[in-house]
Amino acid sequence: MAPRRIDFREAFDRWSRICEVERRDVDARAAKGETLVSREALDHLCGLSVESGLKYLMITRRLVTADRDGDFPADASNRRPHINELWDVFMAKAGGREGTALLRDLGGADQLKVFQTWSSQNRYAADDTVRAGEVRPRLDFFKRLRGVVAQEGA
C-alpha cells in the first residue's frame, strides 16, 4: 500500500468545521450558565485547526518545502512542530514580501503569545484546566486564519 499523502488544507477544513461546532456548543452552554466541560476540547480542536492551517499556508506560500509525503519538514531532531512551537518557525521563515503580507493578515507579530501555552497534552487535562481567557484569543486567531486560507483557494 502506498503511503498516504498529507493534505493540510483538507485537515484544516475538517478541524475547522469541528472546531466551529464545538465553539457554538461552548458559547450556547455558557450563555445558559451551564458548567463547561468542553473548553479543553475546544482549545485542542482550535490548536489542531490552526496548526494545520499554518502548515498549509507555509507550504503553499513556499516558506517551507514539504517532504515527499506532503508533510511539514522535520527539524534536526526529526520532530514536526505543534502549534505552540509553529509560530516561532513561522516568524523565522516569514521574511520577504510573502511572509510580511501573511504576517499582517494574521494579525501581526503580537500573535506570538496566543498559542505559547497551548499543549497537546491538554486533551488529557482535568476539566477547567484551560481558561476562557486563553481560548478566546486563540479562537480570534483561528477566525483570521480561516479568512486567509479561504482567500488562498479563491
In a nutshell, what does this entry contain?
With 154 residues, this protein is an all-alpha fold.
Shape: globular
Binned strand content: under 5%
Note poorly predicted spans: none
Number of helices: 5
**Number of domain modules:** 1
What is the assembly state of the chains in this entry? single chain
**What proportion of the residues is helical, as a percent range?**
55-70%
Q: Cα distance, first to last residue?
A: 34 Å
Q: Average pLDDT value?
A: 86
Secondary-structure-derived class:
mainly alpha
Tell me the Rg in angstroms: 16 Å
Which series of helices and strands comes N to C? HHHHH
Number of strands: 0
Describe this structure in words.
By secondary structure, the chain is mainly alpha-helical. It has one domain. It has 5 helices and no strands. It is globular, with a radius of gyration of 16 Å. The termini are far apart. The mean pLDDT is 86.
Question: What key attributes describe this structure?
Answer:
154 residues, mainly alpha, 5 helices
Question: What's the helix and strand layout?
Answer:
Blueprint: H1 8-31, H2 39-60, H3 83-93, H4 96-105, H5 132-152
Helix pairs in contact: 1-2, 2-3, 2-5
